[in-house]
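Why should sequence recovery work at all? Because a backbone constrains its sequence more than one might expect. Tight turns favour small or flexible residues, buried strands favour hydrophobic ones, and helices have their own preferences. The token representation captures these environments compactly. In the example below, the structure is given first.
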């Protein structure tokens, strides 16, 4: 006798909605359309007040309205598409399944089995997954507008969702270079990570964070201050 197959719920995917991205593109096009009617009066006002106006503004104002409308609308749409593309690239796609969580971002992806997940929560604009020992599997930046969708997905799949509360909030310490409590290797990595963040080298900052994890150190950012917690 064959054992009946148990139907499993498909993974719930959380990503930036396409409607949001389209709205940005359309918003850019609308701004371009409005600019087509505004550049002429704006250029005239600046010339009357300052005897000059920026070259691009004068160039746009010199276009006949029949050309200014499509050209500036197109330029606005292209600018909106660039903003939407950047926003999409900065936000991961998160698949919340019954047995695992998969996070896809610009650097690749990360798969975590459900059995290894003991805590799920948002820390500011970051999604965090930890094991029972407090070690972080994932800490990834997500748009704050996705918080409700993330909560719904994790709760629907019955993960231990903690909302916006870090269960280890009180255990973090602000990092001070060469301060007590950390060895030289940890200080070196935190130093490297601080410089990488200051130079917008996010990949290097993530690598330093990964190495700190292997040392049993969890790190997060509060403004320009790094905070750490020993696991």
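From this structural description, the recovered sequence reads:
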């Amino acid at each position: 006798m064959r054992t009946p197959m148990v139907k499993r719920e498909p993974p719930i995917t959380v990503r930036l909605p396409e409607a949001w991205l389209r709205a940005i593109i359309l918003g850019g096009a609308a701004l371009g359309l409005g600019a087509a009617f505004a550049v002429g009066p704006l250029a005239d006002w600046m010339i009357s007040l300052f005897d000059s106006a920026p070259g691009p503004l004068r160039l746009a104002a010199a276009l006949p309205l029949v050309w200014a409308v499509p050209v500036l609308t197109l330029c606005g749409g292209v600018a909106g598409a660039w903003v939407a593309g950047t926003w999409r690239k900065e936000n991961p796609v998160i698949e919340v399944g019954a047995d695992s969580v998969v996070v896809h971002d610009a650097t690749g992806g990360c798969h975590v089995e459900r059995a290894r997940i003991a805590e799920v929560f948002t820390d500011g604009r970051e999604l965090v997954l930890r094991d029972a020992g407090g070690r972080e599997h994932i800490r990834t930046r997500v748009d704050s507008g996705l918080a409700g969708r993330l909560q719904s997905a994790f709760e629907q799949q019955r993960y231990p969702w903690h909302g916006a509360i870090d269960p280890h909030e009180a255990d973090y310490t602000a990092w001070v270079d060469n301060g007590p409590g950390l060895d030289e290797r940890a200080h070196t990595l935190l130093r490297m990570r601080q410089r990488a963040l200051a130079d917008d080298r996010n990949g290097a900052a993530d690598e330093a964070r990964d190495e700190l994890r292997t040392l049993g150190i969890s790190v997060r950012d509060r403004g320009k201050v790094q905070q750490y917690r020993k696991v």
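A few observations help interpret the result. The chain has a mean pLDDT of 87.
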